[in-house]
């Protein structure tokens, strides 16, 4: 396992999939996992996904990814630093860490993400296939300007992901229907007031069953209510 810490703003890790358990100390952060080598089945939030080389996974705070395969699976993990919630959209390309965090937040809000997917655009997919090994090489053989190169590669990767997600959804990735927005805004407001909020508390406040609440969140965002709560807790209470 190789780990490259850039002032705690970015942590890059090259390892085999079974070694990801050693990264549990970063479980309160957003993580982006690229499959460098191998095929198999990944488990995330009680769901299973097929993966192959060049697949990627978005891991929200409090989530863990497990890869099962008869052969070796190598991964590159990008761990993002802690940051507070950002209330405006990331409309400009990534050129700074603040900009990066805006885009990361938007990517994790995307409702059309399919875990284990590959970049849909062929040219972008080929670019990612070259950038990930470049990033891994800077970890393996650090030298002059490795930090600067690594930062710029991550910026490019996040820009490519954002563009592909935008194109797939036909617009900004953070757009939800009015009912989903109402629920998410309520959850965020309640989490800000009470960091120990439960699903039962939210359902009671919205005057709906826990089942219907979960159904709205999963249908509208593509992720679970538990993940949404955990993400808001990290965003709102992380160190600036």
From TrEMBL:
<protein>
    <submittedName>
        <fullName>AraC family transcriptional regulator</fullName>
    </submittedName>
</protein>
<dbReference type="GO" id="GO:0043565">
    <property type="term" value="F:sequence-specific DNA binding"/>
</dbReference>
<feature type="domain" description="HTH araC/xylS-type">
    <location>
        <begin position="181"/>
        <end position="240"/>
    </location>
</feature>
<dbReference type="InterPro" id="IPR018060">
    <property type="entry name" value="HTH_AraC"/>
</dbReference>
<keyword id="KW-0238">DNA-binding</keyword>
<dbReference type="GO" id="GO:0003700">
    <property type="term" value="F:DNA-binding transcription factor activity"/>
</dbReference>
């Amino acid at each position: 396992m190789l780990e490259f810490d850039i002032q705690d703003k970015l942590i890059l890790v090259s390892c085999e999939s079974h070694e990801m358990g050693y990264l549990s100390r970063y479980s309160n952060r957003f993580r982006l996992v690229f499959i460098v080598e191998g095929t198999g089945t990944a488990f995330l939030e009680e769901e299973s996904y097929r993966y192959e080389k060049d697949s990627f996974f978005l891991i929200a705070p409090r989530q863990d990814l497990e890869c099962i395969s008869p052969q070796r699976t190598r991964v590159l993990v990008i761990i993002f630093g802690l940051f507070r919630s950002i209330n405006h959209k990331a409309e400009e390309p990534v050129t700074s860490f603040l900009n990066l965090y805006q885009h990361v937040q938007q990517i994790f809000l995307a409702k059309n993400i399919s875990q284990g997917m590959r970049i849909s655009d062929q040219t972008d997919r080929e670019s990612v296939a070259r950038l990930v090994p470049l990033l891994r090489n800077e970890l393996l053989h650090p030298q002059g300007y490795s930090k600067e190169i690594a930062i710029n590669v991550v910026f490019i990767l996040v820009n490519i992901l954002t563009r592909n997600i935008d194109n797939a959804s036909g617009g900004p990735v953070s757009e939800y229907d009015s009912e989903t927005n109402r629920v998410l805004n309520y959850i965020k407001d309640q989490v800000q007031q009470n960091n120990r909020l439960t699903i039962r508390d939210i359902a009671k406040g919205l005057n709906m069953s826990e089942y219907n609440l979960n159904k709205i969140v999963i249908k509208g965002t593509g992720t679970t209510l538990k993940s949404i709560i955990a993400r808001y807790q990290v965003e709102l209470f992380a160190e600036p």
